[in-house]
Amino acid sequence: MRKPTRAAVAAASAVLLGTLTACSGGSQAQPENRPTTTGPTPQAPSGVSITDPKDAAAVPLCDLLPSEAAKSLGFKDQGKKNEAILSDGPPFCVWKDPQGSGTKVMVSVLKRKIADYYASPDTWSDFRKITVASHPAVRANKGNPVNTGYCDVYLATQKSQILLSQVSVPASERPATKPCQLSRKVLEAVVPTLPPAQ
Question: 21-34 pLDDT, tens per residue?
Fold first, then answer.
């Protein structure tokens, strides 16, 4: 597998920055490939049911994805924690492909409600309500994952907590590796290991 170029690394950083800006609600400008909506924040719809609430924040970030699961999905068994890109953004942990292809997954825990995403589908050019590991979730991206190689999936672990999985796949590894499919598999591996919410 080929090592990522400087351009690929720069592009990955730009997309990750945009994702964390959108999630944190920060006021800093976002990259052009991450457009934002203007005006007041829409009211989130009620009635989202989470029958088995979990607490992702109770687990150290880089322990969220078990080592055996990470290896089975094609990543190094141990992730590396990174501090927030934005001053008010969440920290995240990154697992990389041990062969150096550039494929990686970033996992973060957000203090948000899944209903916030349900209320703003027009914010994303790629938006789908889905269920992952019996939890409500959304696939929400500013670009087409098939073209960009990036896919964000947001899963509601409890009423006001979101587990984010962002997979990035370089062009050299597509279409054999599908970013949204892999992002979903990461969450499916994480959720059953989480402790119940208190």
Answer: 344 333 222 222 33
